[in-house]
Amino acid sequence: MKTSFVRLFLFTCSFLTLLSAQAENLASAEEYILTWKSEAVRQMNLYKIPASITLAQGILESGNGVSELAKKSNNHFGIKCHADWEGGRTYHDDDEKGECFRVYDHPRDSYEDHSKFLLRKRYAELFDLDLKDYKGWAMGLKKCGYATNPEYSNLLITLIERHDLHRFDSEEGDDVAENPETTNNSPSAYIGIQRQRRDIRTTDHGVQYIVARKGDSPKSLSQDLEMMAWQFTRYNEVSKDYLFSEGERVYLQPKKNYAAYSWYVVRSGQTLWEISQIYGIKTSALARKNNLSKNGSLRTGQKLSLKWSLTKEGNLPWYAKMIKSDKTNLE
Questions:
Q1: Which of 53, 76, 93, 279 could disulfide-pair with 62, CB 3.0 to 4.6 Å?
Q2: In this structure, what are the phi and psi dihedrals at residue 24, rounded to the nearest 5 degrees?
Q3: Which structural domain range is residue 319 located in?
């Protein structure tokens, strides 16, 4: 009899603990939404990703913002390092043991990087969907391989409907965009972001950039776009005091080791760096492909390879000749 009572007592305690944990998780989800709904709407207006999807992914991937990865690394979306990541790194067991995850200075950087991550070619078909089609986006993310969990799309849809997150998917993001004072973020910061909004473009091979305005510098752009100054200096291969010329491309992501075009014919006075900025290819990669030094001078009319590494004799490698892509750009 005494044993049965003890078992009943322990079962009751366990049940109450479970209910308490569920209530706590629900409260944490609501708190997470209050904290990050404004940022999710801002990302939607910039990148055309439904705010409901961003918030649901944030809730799910970060455990309402209290997972170890979210707390210690400000990574709210479980984004792994990948080859093009040049920021901080941390290692956790996930699909495999000791996988590399990105580390951010602030959770807002995680939100920004999440949006840019979804701009990859792999997810291009999602942007043909309506912003209010959260079910299509949820199923599309699973289809495109964002997560390995077979129930991933259903989990997102459940979170969106449980917390009415789709109310933020209107063109202005419901009352969040109209009334920033109702959020935990300061109204002046939000209005400042609205005032400094830039038209974000993408190269033919998927590198994001903006067109510089007069007086833009790594420091001023870091304040306008809520990125770190080092990102502008590193991604654009410039000094911290560099002043961008009006109309110049400013990359928001690392340039790649190749361009979308195969060849380029050098114009008078051009440098490798200037050409690298036109086509979103790293200066070092451009030099290496053409057997040149990084700071070497160029000849007017010189033909540069933008995709393939030339042989010592200056010819295409045998495998490149098999691919019918010899488009020269004279931009």
A1: 76
A2: -65, -40
A3: 263-329
